[in-house]
């Protein structure tokens, strides 16, 4: 089995110019920011990175830019899923040629997959595009409409797909996540995918997590992990509530556009989202800054700083202690 994904993996945003074209010159600064914030890897062209809204050529360009900037510093996983299986195979082959550490894929989602066997068939064809690269199936039923039981799928897919090493699990069935982790004596690397429920994932064995808000709040989530590992559940719960509050605030706006605005407040070039995702107006950007301040989020939501601001406990450099 390949080395498991551990710690925080940021689902990276795709920087864009105001006209919606790619701004690949902004990628190195984004990688520098993520490395400083303590993430261990990046997940490229996923839901957060608007992969499904990019052309095939653009997806290759984004993957190359991030892999080049992150090589030797952060682990790189490229999401290659597409409604065309042939296109997904080509993107997988490209990820392998570019030196990605792993690749991942959602299934075709316009014509819904209704049976476990069809999901295995589709995943096998995609995974075959990069046979030398570790493959993580991406389970996100809220977007794909695929509700196949993941324990059954991983059992069958593990017999069919030689390079299947794990699963990116973005759903709220904690019991199913746990069952996938324990399948075949822990054969698969099952990675947690719900930021505001990280503590729940840790409680059932998650050791790696992929998420959007790790782009802007990685120190907070590192402190959650540290508190959990020390069995300081009171602090871990308190910090997780900060994540819940942050996600709720961002969800008052178009979520990904709002998170990109926070990156811009950090001095990074993130740009707008591409249609059909909405971007924030100038008035909305101004209101978001006010909301971050008035909610108390901005007091601790700063790049490279510790997550907490001593409400009940002191937190410094990811290590918590009682006041």
Automatic annotation (TrEMBL):
Q: Does the keyword Cell division apply?
A: no
State the EC number(s).
Answer: 4.1.3.3
Annotated keywords: Carbohydrate metabolism, Cytoplasm, Lyase, Schiff base
* Entry's localization field: Cytoplasm
A GO molecular function term, named singly, is: N-acetylneuraminate lyase activity
Active-site residue list: 138 (proton donor/acceptor), 168 (schiff-base intermediate with substrate)
Q: Give the family per the record.
A: Belongs to the DapA family.
Tell me what this protein is called: N-acetylneuraminate lyase
Species per Swiss-Prot/TrEMBL record: Lacipirellula parvula
């Amino acid at each position: 089995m390949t080395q498991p994904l551990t710690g925080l993996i940021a689902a990276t945003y795709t920087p864009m110019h105001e006209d919606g074209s790619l701004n690949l010159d902004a990628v190195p600064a984004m990688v520098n920011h993520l490395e400083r914030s303590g993430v261990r890897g990046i997940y490229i062209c996923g839901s957060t990175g608007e992969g499904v809204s990019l052309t095939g050529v653009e997806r290759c360009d984004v993957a190359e830019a991030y892999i080049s900037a992150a090589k030797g510093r952060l682990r790189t996983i490229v999401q290659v899923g597409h409604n065309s299986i042939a296109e997904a195979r080509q993107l997988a082959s490209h990820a392998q040629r570019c030196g990605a550490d792993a690749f991942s894929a959602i299934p075709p989602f316009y014509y819904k997959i209704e049976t476990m066997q069809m999901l295995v068939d589709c995943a096998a064809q995609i995974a075959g595009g990069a046979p030398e690269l570790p493959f993580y199936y991406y389970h996100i039923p809220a977007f794909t409409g695929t509700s196949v039981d993941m324990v059954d799928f991983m059992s069958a897919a593990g017999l069919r797909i030689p390079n299947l090493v794990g699963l990116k699990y973005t759903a709220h069935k904690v019991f199913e996540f746990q069952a996938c982790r324990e399948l075949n004596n822990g054969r698969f690397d099952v990675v947690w995918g719900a930021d505001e429920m990280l503590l729940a994932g840790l409680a059932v064995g998650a050791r790696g997590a992929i998420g959007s808000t790790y782009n802007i709040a990685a120190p907070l989530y590192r402190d959650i992990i540290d508190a959990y590992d020390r069995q300081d559940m009171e602090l871990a719960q308190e910090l997780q509530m900060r994540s819940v509050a942050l996600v709720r605030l961002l969800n008052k706006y178009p979520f990904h556009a709002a998170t990109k605005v926070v990156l811009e407040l950090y001095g990074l070039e993130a740009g707008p989202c591409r249609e059909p995702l909405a971007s924030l107006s100038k008035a909305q950007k101004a209101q978001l800054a006010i909301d971050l301040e008035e909610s108390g989020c901005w007091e601790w939501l700063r790049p490279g700083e510790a997550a907490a601001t001593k409400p009940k406990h002191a937190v410094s450099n990811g290590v918590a202690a009682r006041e």
